[in-house]
Amino acid sequence: MLWQQSIEDLHANTPFQRLRPSSLLLLQLLALLLVILAIMQPQIKGAAPKEGNHVILIDNSSSMLTEDVEGISRLDTAKEQAIELVTMLHGGGLFAGDGGRTMVIAFSDSAQVVSPFSDSKQQLVHAIESIKPTHGQSDASEALTLARAYTTNTNPEEAGLSASESAQLELFSDGRIKGLNNNALQRGESLVYHAIGSPQTSNIGIYSMSVSRLSEASDEIQTFVSLVNSSSEAVTVDVTMFVEDVPTNVTQVEVLPSYIDGQASPTNVVFMPFAFPNGGVISVKISEEDAFIIDNQASVIVSPPQSLRVLYAEGDIPIVKTVLEGMPLQSLNKLPIEHLGEALEEQADVHDVVVLRDVSIPELPNGRFLIFGNPPPVQAFESYVDGAAQEMLVASEEHPVMRFVRYEEIFVSEGFNVITDDRVETLLEGSLWPAVLYMRSQTHEIVYVAFDPLQSNWPYLRSFPFFVYNALHFLGRNGASLTEKSMDVGDSVSFSVPSSTADMIVTFPSGLKETVPVLTQGMFHWGPFVESGVYSFKHSGEERTVYVKHPSDESFVQSVDVIQIGTTTVDNSGSTAQSFIPLWPWALGSVLLVLLAEWWVYQNKVGGARKKPAMFEGMQ
Question: Which of 147, 526, 529, 551 has minimal CB crowding within 10 Å?
């Protein structure tokens, strides 16, 4: 039918007449060329998935929560691209993958297989969608180990993996991954790096935070903060300090660019010191809203005053005992006067402070002591004479032992005038001789009152119990850690609880609460931590606070276009083993389109001539 018109023309005219131009002829020639092209099976280099098995590695570390586009995190983008890859591999149809299997692994500070090898698109998509973010540091070592554990060649005579057995690694990450340089691709392995995020994304974050006392003898603490700026320009921000969630100090800071030649160079901030004797949570927050808000706040937990174990011995009238019994101590034990030396030697090391009044011992064991009356048998106090009656003149009021101690009304009838040197610090000076002394050595720490309180009016004054309280807590906490040890993302916590405790109320940094059963009698175990911030664990009226710090290196959020695994360099969306895209399916598809176009043209040319209206018939 196609050539019918041309044949009629040949019959009507000379046999040497040229054929008329025909669009149908051109379309059929084009279809013939496309069929020949399909038979040749051409291919081009490209990023098409490699045939065989695939392992999808999705980075769900802290930096993947960066929002390069407002409201969309990098993790959301990575999961979306991974689902597109799964659809390409296992979506079915002419252009789908070769039917290999795919495994999905999520990794940050640790790795988790969220789906074993499968060829089910529905199962793989569901696994990818179930991946939750963490605040951990990105480390690919465990993820690579897991991937290889599922693809290892079990033939002992053949090392590595064959090309047919190996799985192509599909890495979805912003590229700031720890542990890549310490790994290398095995034989047969290949890696495709899908870079997520923008290299231009900037961030201002808290790199580190710490507190310290102005001195061991002070209740005042000072807060130090280091800030990082991952952009190329200086940024000015407001930094606020909170004490128990109450804002107390605001300072404006110019944060200089911090990532220079691959090394972090933070900007340091020092807050004014303040008295904080009782412990609690101190936090610092940056007011700047940026693409990565997790590192805009950090905290430290200052330890509360230690509950002390006190050992005491005194002579006739129990003056010190009365004060000690009114204090909230963990334990209070009395030493027998008859065998004082032996008992003290046995028990001193299991108590925080030993209090001695109006007793004599030949030798003083190692430890911390509050001593009234007779000078202790140590070298620093061995030189003394009798002290005459005196009144108090001046005190080191900034020292914690003398804080809130009103000394002006104290009168002493007699005591011991110790000849001091630079090893001894005078805390209270009388009109004739030093009344209260402090000495610290490698073996002893002593607060010494150079008179028996019975030889003074001090027991009748309100300042006496203040002094005993101050001295015990100063001695008991000296050398103790100022802050509670912070934990890392991925750690777990364990601590003892009363055996009757059945449930623990856990408060997360976001404020959400969860009731967790205590499965082991007398012990509570919980973890691992997946978020940074302050956690609270409460049971039976008691509460324990734990701070989980954010990985500082995750504050540098610019994505990386090129990664290095061992000695192999991999570009964004590039592969260490080239893949090829076959063109013959597209050629066959084009043949179908050309034939449809030819049929449409033919119908317009031939079918239209057959359907001429009846009124025009016979009018030739």
Answer: 526
Q: Count Cα neighbours of 86 within 13 Å in the Cβ-side half-sphere.
A: 26
Under 8 Å between Cβ of 453 and 372: yes
Same domain, residue pair 370 and 269:
no
CA 308 vs CA 215, 296, 311, 327: distances in Å:
21, 37, 10, 10
Q: Which residues contact 612 (CB under 8 A, 6 or more apart)?
A: none
Which of 525, 549, 573 is at the close of a domain? 549
**Residues forming a β-bridge with 101:** none
Q: With contact defined as beta carbons under 8 Å apart, do 197 and 74 qualify?
A: yes
Starting at the edge strand found earlier in the chain, the sheet holding 297-302 runs: 246-255, 235-243, 280-286, 297-302
351 and 457: one domain? Answer: yes
Q: Which residue has the tokens 């110790």?
A: 418
Burial of 454 (0-12, 13-18, 19+ CB in 10 A): middle
One domain, residues 330 and 463: yes
d(CA 374, CA 272): 42
CA triple 429-432-437, angle to 5 deg: 35
Asked if residue 140 lies in contact with residue 131, where contact means CB atoms within 8 angstroms, the answer is no
Q: How far is the CA of 97 from the CAs of 47, 91, 100, 397, in angstroms?
A: 13, 8, 7, 81
Give the separation between CA 361 and CA 348, rounded to whole angstroms: 13
pTM for the model stands at 0.68
Domain check: are 257 and 208 in the same one? Answer: yes
Q: How many CB atoms lie within 10 A of CB 591?
A: 17
C-alpha separations of 69 from 174, 291, 292, 556, 561 in Å? 14, 8, 11, 17, 18
362 and 497 together in one domain: no
314 and 399 inside one domain: yes
Q: Which residues contact 582 (CB under 8 A, 6 or more apart)?
A: 41, 42, 43
- Domain-terminating residue out of 446, 477, 508: 477
For residues 369 and 459, state if they share a domain: yes
Intervals of the chain under pLDDT 70: 1-22, 24, 43-51, 91-99, 152-166, 216-217, 259-264, 478-482, 574-582, 606-620
The answer to whether residue 564 is domain-embedded is no
Q: Are 261 and 243 in contact (CB under 8 A)?
A: no
Is position 192 within any domain? no
309-340 CB burial, b ≥16 within 10 A, e <16: bbbbbbbeeebbbebbeeeebeebeebeeeeb
